[in-house]
Amino acid sequence: MQNSDIDLVNIQFQLNGKPIRLSVRPFDSALAVIRDEIGLTGTKEGCGIGECGACTILVDGKAITACLMLAPQLDGREVQTIEGVAEGDTLHPVQQALLAHGAVQCGFCTPGMVMSAKGLLEANSHPTREEIADALAGNLCRCTGYVQIVDAIEELAGSPRANEAVKR
Amino acid sequence: MRSRFRYYRPTSLSEALDFLALHGTDTAIVAGGTDLMISARSGDLQCKYVLDVSRLNELRPVAMSDGLLAIGSAVTHAEIAAHPVTRDVAPVLAKAASCVGSTQIRNMGTIGGNIANASPAADTIPPLMVHNAKIVVKSASGERVEYLGDFVRGPYVTILKPGELITHVLLEPMMSGYRHSFQRIARRRALSIARMNVAALGLVDGNGVIQDLRLSVGSVTPRPCRMTVAEDVLTSNKPDKKVFWEAAEKVSHEMVRWSGIRPTTEYKKPAVEGLVYRALADLFLSEG
Ligand SMILES: Cc1cc2nc3c(=O)[nH]c(=O)nc-3n(C[C@H](O)[C@H](O)[C@H](O)COP(=O)(O)OP(=O)(O)OC[C@H]3O[C@@H](n4cnc5c(N)ncnc54)[C@H](O)[C@@H]3O)c2cc1C
Ligand code: FES
Ligand code: FES
Q1: Domain edge (last residue) among A41, A59, A83
Q2: A49 contacts on B by Cβ (under 8 Å)
């Protein structure tokens, strides 16, 4: 089918703090639009069915899997992707914590992990270890990085930098 | 190949019902999309329109009304798990909602979607059954109210007709003095036979005798039901391990009665008995 046969949907939303307008195919996922139309490829596609968390983004501050969201549902929302997390060359405190703990073993699961951790810290700046593990349970890590990841977020949450992590 | 459809987002419930009155047979409703997007991706979803009800304020209340707890169909699992009213008068539902999927799934998935999808393993269904939940369904021509056990006809089948949508569910609040427990076994989704869940509410009188017991078990019967045979074993008895096992065996008998002996029975029978036992022990033998 050509795009000309399709009723495109006009949407506008805040993407990493900047307003964006575009026309999307009504049946595409938010993930497809973010990666293929907008070209922000930091958000990864793993399973495509909500099980791996590689596509995690924040919508109105809440972690969701972009592969399960319809693109038109982005309309009017405030959306954050991994690209909006670092400020220039300065990594976000969550990213710094992961690096410091040797918890970044691949580029694939990490963006999703960072977004889930950020979503948690925005709602709860001093989570317990259990709450951290629960918040990251929807992000699969196929290697051995998991313990370091939870350690990293736990240490960050216990430090004054947690408040900074929330603000950014 | 991905399913193709048009998208429509009404701004009010009446607009949604008008749309469904015209296009009901060609329309799929979407709320959180956590079930629908799977079938859209595989191409199994066949419809001309997708109607997005996720932002309708009329479908988003959580409140007591006329002595019942009303929860809007578009309320998410995360909201149910955190809401002070559900935690207070339906803690077994709040607990179940907190167990669904992952944080991401709970932030998107709704109670209305969970009910309408009618998976035998749906985590909110056993808690709703022990609260004698009723489903409120609306269409442009009116409203009907059905008990959940009548609303779901079988695995992934409900009595929802084209043109209708679920607006909310009504629960009897848990009375004071009752205890509650929700237990589940969850493996990876792909192995759905390994998913099973139990909700129980119980009341013990001053003499330590069980006065009321409500038990519902997911994934063991084709339709949601209360395990009355097991409830009868427990009521008027003192809670102890022997009577818990007796009740657990009644549940596994029910399962075999419905589904016959299957290759999975050998695994499922001890699993379901263990799970029911765990729920009853948690209900009566644990503190608080
Ligand atoms: C990775 C993953 C893990 C999951 N884990 C669990 C789990 O642990 N436990 C569990 O129970 N479920 C689980 N699910 C299934 C799913 O998340 C739930 O069933 C969820 O509650 C569905 O709600 P939704 O709003 O996303 O539904 P949608 O996908 O939007 O809709 C589901 C169905 O309901 C219909 N529908 C939605 N709203 C209405 C309405 N108001 N009126 C009439 N029909 C309606 C839709 O047309 C569709 O047929 C999981 C799913 C995924 C992808
Ligand atoms: S790609 Fe979305 S959860 Fe795996
Ligand atoms: S660090 Fe990426 S899968 Fe484990």
Answers
A1: A83
A2: 37-38, 41
Residue-wise pLDDT tens digits, B20-76? 999 999 999 999 999 999 999 999 999 999 999 999 999 999 999 999 999 999 999
Do the bridges between strand B6-8 and strand B49-52 make them parallel or antiparallel, or are there none, so unpaired?
parallel
| Number of neighbours of residue A103 by Cβ within 10 angstroms | 20
Domain B59-171, CATH class in plain words: alpha beta
Q: What domain range is A12 assigned to?
A: 3-83
Enumerate residues 6+ apart whose C-beta is below 8 A from B165: B16, B17, B20, B29, B53, B73, B112, B137, B138, B139
DSSP state, residue B181: E
Flag if A68 and B108 touch (Cβ within 8 Å).
Answer: yes
Distance CA B65, CA A23 (A): 42
Residue of chain A nearest B40, judged by CA positions: A27
Distance CA(B199)–CA(B130), nearest Å, equals: 7
The pTM score is 0.96
ipTM rounded to 2 decimals: 0.94
B46-55 residue pLDDT tens: 999 999 999 9
- Helix axes of A146-157 and A93-100: crossing angle, nearest 10 degrees: 130
